[in-house]
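Entry 0007
Protein: AraC family transcriptional regulator
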Amino acid sequence: MLNHVLANSVVRKDVCPEDVSDYVNAHIGHHRLTLLGSGKMRSSLRYASFARLGLSHISYGGKVRVHSPDLEEVYHLQVVTSGRCTWNFDEDRLSLDAGQALMMNPHEKSDLTYSQDCQKLIVKIPESILKAACVDNGRALPRDGLRFQRQVMNLDASLAFMRLVEAVYEEASEAEADMASASGAYADLLANKLLAVFPCNLSRERNGAGADGSLQLIRRYLQERIREDVTVEELADLCNVSVRSLYNVFSREIGITPKLFIKQTKLQSLHADLKQGINARNVTEVALDYGFSHLGRFSSDYRKLFGELPSETLRRTR
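Output (structure tokens):
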């Protein structure tokens, strides 16, 4: 399953495991390899960079153990395509067989054991891509960042997701230099699908009264006044609560402050305008239209959420 992908992106084939490990350390991510099997082991690695994603297919050809100290500012989607891979965490242990997948979070250490016949797909996803997907879907980011649960997913339970992963790998194999702007859509699709398929710490939209009703009211209010300078006090009055109570609601329900929520909502709308070319003659004009008067801080906040400068979004749209 999916072992045919990246056929045109072979970087190591039928070599010793140390050769594959050296390439991974130099180009993909730091780790330490320990050989557990005996005899002649032949390893292979295919790797491609596509739509700001790092795509690889790896096989060590024998039983090995891999220690990774830190995933840095990236998430890893790891899919076992044959054999078995076991994750050894401090407090638990997870084993994935062929057809199963797991999401790894940034700054998360990993201690993996590959079976002799294990083969895996690994997708490196920059933190900024998933942050942008959260904002685009109106999902506020928790204070401690987006974190996926350590939960194994069976790919046969989500054929659409499996086909999307396969499509991303196939496009990476055939990508041409002039399709950079179109390739970004694949990263967006994958990020949105990951948020829908893998359990994480994002709050879900629910119908009802109380805090959820207040948050829905605030979202509608902000969308209607998206280019106005809306204050926290204004939102508190809207919900008939004190400013302190409003901060408590936001802290409890979505893990960020009302002020940051206002900024994220504005950036989300502005980002959509730039992607669609709506009223976007230049970035400065759009930023000022949304009330971002400090252009340096605006560009920095935009880049943290969407992984690129607003000028780059506008240039790609054009």
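Curator remark: The first helix runs from residue 17 to 27. The chain has two domains: 10-197, 210-317.
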